[in-house]
């Protein structure tokens, strides 16, 4: 495998497999079976091209090195079902929250923290819910949990959590910062020591002040819609999300409006670009483009937004079992995953239920390869695209 070749990790979390392939040719250079990775916690980029993820069935955090002869570099027992995964800017200290899993209500209050350098790990009890998490760096790292109903940013000293005795004892936050009750979406700008949380009001931001947080001005959406997902652009130091508007009834999903939303953290300017109706959720950041997939009964497409905000659209072949009019876009349907690396121009998009991955050259808009795997990629699967030194670890939140 050429040293500079990007690699694509493809997880079928239902089937229980992980494939590692070179891009764009699709040569298989690694594979795991019997590993049911948490699609919700996603892949967390670590330094040196490594990634962390969680096996929800075995209750293990995996550190994978897709560029090494041995794919699994380390395993650590953790609490599941995995909800959100994050690390400090060094990639050394990790925190993992638990959430719903296959349950109808939040039931677990367990938080796992671990230090990859020392091998120490522990579990504590915090608060039942579906908390987001970020880990702020510095001499005394802080774990920040984003809670809902009631909404708050709860601040814990990492060292205090790691020093708790065994038995999953309850812990009390060192500090609290109020939030609206409908938070969903988390990001961190490591260089500035800022943490961000998306709510219906906009993006709430807070900065580290000693071992607490100080609230800064809320970044408004500038639209009646809102974002449910936040992502840091390590290339331009910007926040990205998709604004979803329209009737919130899931049965009306083909009518939902979608806009790409970008907030430049250096200039404070906000940009919005229309993407079209239907289901648009997660996004991927390539070297010079931002990629979105749009699912709609009239046809799916890959939408590429370039650095100068030029929009290009590319049709994607239909999926059997795709969301349909009169049904919801979430339950019992196929979806698409999308991935990119800030170090390359390749975009990967899955065709859920078909076991296919489209490899697109964002520079030309052409499909270079269509990979066919041995599993169906149920629910779209989940993807991560890495180059060894692509800088993706500059976003220390799992995606």
Write a compact overview of the structure shown:
The chain has one helix at residues 158-162, and strands at residues 7-12, 17-22, 28-33, 44-45, 51-55, 60-64, 72-77, 82-87, 93-98, 110-115, 121-125, 132-136, 142-147, 152-157, 175-178, 186-189, 194-199, 202-209, 212-215, 226-227, 231-233, 238-245, 257-264, 270-274, 283-285, 289-294, 300-306, 311-316, 338-340, 346-351, 356-361, 366-372, 382-386. With 399 residues, it is mostly beta strands. It has one domain (7-394): Methylamine Dehydrogenase, Chain H.
What key attributes describe this structure?
399 residues; mainly beta; Methylamine Dehydrogenase, Chain H; five-stranded antiparallel beta sheet; four-stranded antiparallel beta sheet; 1 helix; 1% helix; globular
């Amino acid at each position: 495998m050429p040293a500079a070749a990007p690699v694509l990790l493809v997880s079928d979390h239902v089937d229980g497999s992980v494939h590692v392939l070179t891009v764009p040719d699709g040569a298989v250079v690694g594979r795991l079976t019997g590993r049911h990775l948490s699609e919700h916690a996603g892949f967390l980029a670590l330094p040196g091209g490594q990634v962390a993820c969680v096996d929800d069935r075995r209750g293990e955090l995996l550190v994978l090195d897709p560029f090494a002869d041995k794919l699994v570099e380390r395993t650590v027992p953790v609490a599941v079902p995995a909800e959100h995964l994050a690390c400090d800017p060094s990639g050394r200290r990790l925190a993992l929250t638990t959430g719903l899993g296959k349950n109808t209500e939040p039931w677990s209050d367990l938080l796992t923290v671990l230090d990859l350098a020392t091998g120490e790990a522990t579990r504590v009890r915090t608060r039942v819910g579906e908390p987001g998490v970020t880990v702020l760096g510095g001499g005394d790292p802080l774990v920040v949990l984003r809670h809902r109903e009631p909404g708050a940013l709860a601040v814990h000293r990492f060292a205090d959590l790691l020093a708790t005795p065994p038995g999953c004892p309850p812990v009390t936050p060192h500090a609290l910062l109020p939030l609206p009750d409908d938070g969903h979406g988390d990001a961190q700008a490591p260089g500035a020591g800022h943490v961000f949380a998306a709510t219906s009001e906009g993006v709430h931001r807070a900065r580290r002040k000693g071992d607490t947080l100080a609230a800064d001005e809320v970044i408004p959406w500038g639209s009646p819609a809102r974002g449910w997902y936040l992502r840091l652009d390590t290339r331009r130091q910007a926040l990205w999300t998709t604004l979803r508007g329209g009737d919130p009834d899931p049965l009306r999903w083909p009518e939902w409006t979608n806009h790409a939303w970008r907030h430049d953290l250096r200039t404070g300017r906000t940009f919005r670009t229309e993407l079209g109706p239907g289901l648009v959720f997660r996004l991927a950041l390539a070297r010079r483009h931002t990629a979105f997939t749009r699912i709609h009964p009239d046809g799916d497409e890959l939408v590429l937004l370039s650095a100068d905000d030029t929009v290009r659209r590319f049709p994607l072949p239909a999926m059997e079992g795709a969301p349909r009019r009169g049904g919801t876009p979430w339950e019992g349907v196929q979806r698409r995953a999308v991935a990119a690396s800030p170090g390359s121009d390749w975009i990967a998009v899955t065709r859920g239920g078909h076991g296919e991955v489209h490899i697109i050259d964002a520079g030309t808009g052409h499909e270079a390869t269509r990979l066919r795997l041995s599993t169906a990629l149920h629910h779209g699967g989940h993807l991560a695209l890495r180059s060894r030194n692509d800088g993706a670890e500059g976003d220390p939140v799992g995606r």
